[in-house]
User: What shape does this take?
Amino acid sequence: MTRLITLSIAALCLLTVEANAQVTASSYSNGGTAIATAHGRGNTRLNSRAVATNGGYARSSITGRGVNGGFAAGDSRAYANGGVAISDARSVANGWGARSDANSVARSYGGFARSDSLAVARGAWADARADSEANAFYNYSRTRARAVDNRLPSTQPVYQNFGPQSVPRSMPRSMPRTFRRW
Assistant: This one.
């Protein structure tokens, strides 16, 4: 009986958890092909935009996924005027202080531009940000950006005092002790 009540309360808590996902995707084409894709999962804010003109090909894509208290945000934009512009951004966040931002922009005028970006943050106070931008004017352009902040989850305060055993024997006791940040 108590197991049934515990399971009922756990199911009720899972149903009342609020997961916000704000996702927008828009594409515009004037004589070209424009594809905009955006995904999301809990606690995300994602924007995807693709614009193609004069026979150009523009593809923009973004993937979120900030769950368990983390927050994933990002923008992905591709603009092509007679060329090819591809932009990707992916943002992953986890943990209770994790925040991840990934922004990617690709612009092409008669050339090929590609821009990738990835930001991953996991852990207690993790924070990651990645921005990439590629511009091509009748030529080839490619950029990548990656920011990974995998801090270990901790329930301890940010600054810890490890006591006298952390002081090296060569250091006099009268010198100030350093605090480590984990």
The longest strand covers residues 71-81. The radius of gyration is 23 Å. Residues 1-18, 157-182 have pLDDT under 50 and may be disordered.
